[in-house]
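TA notes. Do not distribute before section.
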Amino acid sequence: MTHYYWTTYKSACNYQLLEQMNELQIRKATPEDLTSLSELFDGYRVYYGRPSDREAARQFLSARMAGEESVIMVAMHNQDLAGFVQFYPLFSSVRMQRLWLLNDLFVQERFRGRGISVALIESGKTLCRETLACGFMLETAKTNTIGNNLYRKAGLTLDTEHYVYQWETDRC
C-alpha cells in the first residue's frame, strides 16, 4: 500500500475545472442524504469487489452518523449526489494531536474528470483546520495510478519512510 499524508497549510491545487462547475456544492452529509449516499457507498464497495448490499450500507452509514464516528462530506452537483469522502478520527501519540484517516473517496463515473475528487480532498483539509488536527492520511494500492496521480495533484505527500502492517480476524 502507498501512504499519503497531508499536513495543514501545505497545499497547491488547481481549481480550474471546479470553477467551471458553479453547480457543485461540498457539504457535510446529513441523515436526509442516507438513501442516495447508501446507493453510492454500495457502488463504492462493489467497485472494490464486495457484494452489493444496500441495506447493510445504509445501516453502516447511519450508525457512523448517529455515533458521530466519522465525518462524511458529499459533493452535490445540482440535485445529484456526485461523490463522497469519509474521514475517521485518529490521534497521534508522538505528535500529541488529532489526525484524520481519509478512508473512503468515491465519485460517480459520470462525474469524474471534473475536479470533484480534488474538492472532496480539499474538504478534508478544511476539516483538519476546523478541528485543529495536524493533518490526514490515507492508503491506496501502489497500482492505483489514477488515485496516486490525484493525491499528488491535491498536494499530498507520499510517505516513503514507513511500512504498514496489519492483522485481521476471520470476520474480514
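Switch to the second chain here.
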Amino acid sequence: MFSRGPRRKVERPPLTDEQLLSAAVSALAARSRSEAELRRLLQKKLTEPAPARIDKVVARLHELGYLSDARLAESIVENKQRQAHLGKRRVTQELLKRGVKADLVGETIERAYAEVDEVALAQSFVERKRLRPPKDPKETARLLRALQRAGFSMGTCWKVVRRLGNQAALDGMDEAGLATDSES
C-alpha cells in the first residue's frame, strides 16, 4: 500500500573467519544441527562460495566438540522414540532429511530400536494421539494411514488395528489396508 519502491539489498562487508565461527556457534546454540545443515547455513551467510573457509570452521567446531552428527542422531532418535513414539521409518526419514549420513543413521536406528517392541510403541502412539478405535472400514483406513505416517510397518499397523477394532470395522478391508470390491 505504501510502497517506497524496490527494496535495495544492503551491501555488507564479507565475514571474517572469526565472525563465521561466531555465527556457526550461535546457530548451534539456537538448536542442534547436522554438519550438512550447518554448511548450508554458513554458505547463505557468505556472499561468495568459500568451501575452504566453511571446512575450516566445521573442523574447528568438531575439535571443540560443538558439532557431532552421531550425538545429534542419538538425541533425535531418543526424542522421537520415547516422546513422540514414532517408528523406525519416520525417524530414519527425518535424520536423512537433516543431512545425517545414511550409514550413521542405520547404525543409530538399529541400536536404538534393537530392544523396542514395535507393536507396543505403535500402541503408545495411538494412545498419545488419542486415536479412537475404528467403527467402520473408513475409520480403519484412517487409523492405518496415521500409523504408517508415524513410521510403522504395515504388519505392525494391522496388529494394532486388530487389537483396537471390532470385526465390523475390519470387514471389507484386506491386508493392504484397501477396501475390497464388495465395499466399493
